[in-house]
Amino acid sequence: VDQEQLKQDSDYLSSAVLKEKNSYLLLGVIGEITEKYGYGISSFTLSVEDLKKTTNSLKLADKSVATKMPLNIEVSGPADKFIDLIKNLENSLPILFIDSLETSQQSNNLTIKMMISSYYLADKIDVESENLSLTDLKLSKEESDLLSKISHFEKTEGLNQMDSSTGGTYKEYDRENPF
Description:
Elements: H1 3-15, H2 23-36, E1 40-45, H3 48-52, E2 57-60, E3 63-78, H4 82-90, E4 92-93, E5 97-106, E6 109-121, H5 134-137, H6 141-150, E7 154-155
């Protein structure tokens, strides 16, 4: 097994889903993509009700492994860049799903209302390692095809900022109490 290829594949897979349950991170990723095509975010809404639904999760062996994070967003920009924008949204990492799309146009300005979602994957997934065999660790044809497909997707810079919430360090200042 080529260790370099294994590391590269692992990086692609880890960037395919959000590492934090943070809707603003998802908004940042979408904002970065829309900005490339001259689109600006007009408004966005987070539906707490949609976030709480239990049907919004991917299940594996009757265990929830990933949670869907929906975001309603409205963007405006040049109509001639619409197709390029949608293609980039669909071919980006983390993987974004366009659940609904509605457009309206005034001259060359296009307004797009979309519900976009991505999945959050918790760090801790309970896997019973005693039940694994060597064949379970080898990629199937379907998994290899998926990996080869997402290896052509574009990673967004917002992924590098995923750990930014833990960012700066706390510094305590010695100040006298003014009272």
